[in-house]
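[job 0412] stage=complex_fold ligand=zinc ion status=START
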Amino acid sequence: MGDHIDSPRIAGSTRRDALGLAAGLLTGGALALGGAPPAAAAEPDDDCLADYDADYELALALSEAELPEDSAELERYGPPGRCAMPLRRRFRITTRYGVPGNWIAGYHTGIDLAVPRGTPVYAVGGGRVVLARWSGAYGKAVTVRMPDGHYAVYAHLSRISVRRGARLRTGAYLGSSGATGRATGPHLHLEIRAHRGYGSDVNPAQYLARRGARLR
Ligand SMILES: [Zn+2]
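[job 0412] stage=complex_fold status=DONE, emitting structure tokens
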């Protein structure tokens, strides 16, 4: 899944406007949206709505500008080219990567691993924590820039246990799973991006499998 985003910003504001309109109509008691179902029922049959969020993307861009690449320190991060499992207990894959649905991208940009709230989450790859804070639709999220230039986003966390700027080794504990942000049930939304921006996502299961960690 590569170049499928024409203009997330425009799409984002359009959808945001549409949701705002729907919310306004609902709070006003007017359920008739030209025959459209209420907003909640219009969402995909999924517990994850981690999606394009302008505030998150802006915060990520600004934060990263202050955290230069430190390729001289790559050895800090663990064995190059090897990934670790993000969870060390049993999980259920509830929504796979690329499933079509009501996301701005038109499909699910990560993979959802259902685990109870509070389950420890580990870095699939070492790298620099470029953002560790509330991230809008992603809820409490940790975003890590890995030495190969990819970004890993760990979303909907109940607890964040690392600070922005920290250097994590592969397999480092970074927080606990939850259902913060746009999620209706506890799960880890793991998203791997080839670049910083929304829409550059790659298949997390494939990314990890090629580096020795199999999600199943
Ligand atoms: Zn998800």
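The longest helix spans residues 8-27.
[job 0412] exit 0
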